[in-house]
């Protein structure tokens, strides 16, 4: 969806003296930035820069836009090479690194599986084993062929999709824009994937609510997010569909071709960037509570809370951030 807004600088929100609020819809979700400029004159250029960056990012990389570079690559799958610039080459490098880091769990070629298990359909149905196998045959980062200045997906029907980490990447980019525009206090929130710049005026930390996945809509406290940190959650308790009396969540494991179904309900991760928090939370969710926590322990400074049907487990330092 287009990220354009009105041309006036947003006024400070009620109850938050001194903080401006910029809100819009983009990247398939609600986006909001609370911020305080060091100089009043820097607010308008910052908001304009945010609008421009988000719109350009979505126009280039959204699979929902038929004219995007990602859509053009997908349309040429199995047929021809697509010319790309340095920026797209760098994005593909990120995809490759993410694939290795997450042991194949976050795979930018998983689009065919996501379409197969699309919970947005009016009457979703459970695909047959043969349909799952056919979709899995189109998934695999090793099937992305590259040469200088060009890329091709090896098989017709393959699809690139940056949805596994693109929103978190955008959050960090906008946080960097805030720093570049001399914004000392900012909270960037795109669909509850969050990164902060500095701290709130006259406060030691930003407070971010924690939703209880076993009671959606109910908060179980909040996290104190300090300067520069990011937070992201992954869970399947809100999005999915029910068929034959069984619920299927929206997070699909590309290694099996099926939605995750091992009792995990939510993983929340605090890390140095929103991008890292998102990668770790999604990977840990797919792995499950025990293996997921062991995975997160490999990353110094990352803290996590994992909620499953049978209880909760967390890293040693997570509760240091929780405000009850």
3D structure, described in words:
This protein has 2 domains: 20-55 and 165-323, ApbE-like domains (T-fold), CATH 3.10.520; 69-160, T-fold, CATH 1.10.3980. The chain is built from 8 helices and 18 strands. The chain has 324 residues and is α+β, with helices and mostly antiparallel strands. It starts with 19 loop residues before the first strand and ends with a strand. The model is unreliable at 1-15 (pLDDT under 50). A hairpin with a 4-residue loop joins strand 13 (252-253) and strand 14 (258-259). It is 29% helix and 27% strand. It is globular and about 60 Å long. Helix 1 packs antiparallel against helix 6.
Structural class: alpha+beta
The overall pLDDT, averaged over residues, is 91
Would you count the extended β strands for me? 18
**Large-scale geometry:** globular
Helix fraction bin: 25-40%
The CATH superfamily of the largest domain bears the name: ApbE-like domains
Radius of gyration over C-alpha positions, nearest whole angstrom: 20 Å
What is the highest CATH level, the class of the largest domain? Alpha Beta
Give the strand order of the largest sheet, numbering strands 1, 2, ... along the chain: 1-2-6-7-10-15-16-17
How does the major sheet shape up? 8 strands, antiparallel
């Amino acid at each position: 969806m287009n990220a354009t807004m009105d041309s006036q600088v947003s006024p400070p929100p009620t109850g938050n003296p001194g903080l401006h609020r910029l809100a819009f819809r983009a990247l398939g979700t609600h986006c909001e930035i609370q911020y305080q400029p060091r100089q009043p004159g820097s607010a308008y250029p910052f908001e304009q820069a945010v609008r421009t960056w988000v719109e350009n990012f979505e126009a280039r990389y959204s699979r929902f836009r038929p004219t995007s570079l990602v859509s053009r690559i997908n349309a040429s799958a199995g047929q021809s090479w697509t010319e790309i610039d340095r920026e797209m080459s760098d994005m593909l490098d990120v995809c490759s690194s993410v694939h290795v880091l997450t042991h194949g769990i976050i795979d930018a070629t998983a689009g065919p599986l996501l379409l197969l298990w699309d919970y947005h359909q009016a009457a979703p149905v459970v695909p047959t084993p043969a349909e799952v196998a056919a979709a899995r045959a189109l998934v695999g980062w090793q099937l992305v062929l590259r040469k200088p200045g060009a890329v091709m997906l090896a098989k017709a029907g393959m699809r690139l999709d940056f949805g596994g980490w693109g929103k978190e990447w955008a959050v960090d980019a906008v946080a960097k824009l805030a720093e570049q525009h001399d914004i000392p206090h900012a909270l960037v929130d795109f669909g509850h994937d969050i990164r902060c710049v500095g701290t709130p005026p006259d406060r030691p930390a930003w407070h971010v609510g924690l939703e209880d996945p076993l009671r959606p809509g109910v908060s179980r406290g909040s996290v104190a997010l300090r300067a520069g940190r990011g937070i992201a959650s992954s869970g399947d308790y809100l999005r999915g569909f029910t068929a034959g009396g069984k619920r299927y969540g929206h997070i699909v494991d590309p290694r099996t071709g099926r939605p995750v179904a091992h009792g995990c309900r939510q993983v929340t991760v605090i890390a140095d960037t929103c991008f890292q928090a998102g990668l770790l939370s999604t990977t840990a969710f797919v792995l499950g509570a025990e293996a997921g926590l062991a995975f997160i322990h490999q990353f110094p400074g990352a803290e996590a809370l994992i909620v499953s049907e049978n209880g909760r487990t967390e890293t040693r330092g997570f509760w240091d951030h929780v405000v009850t």
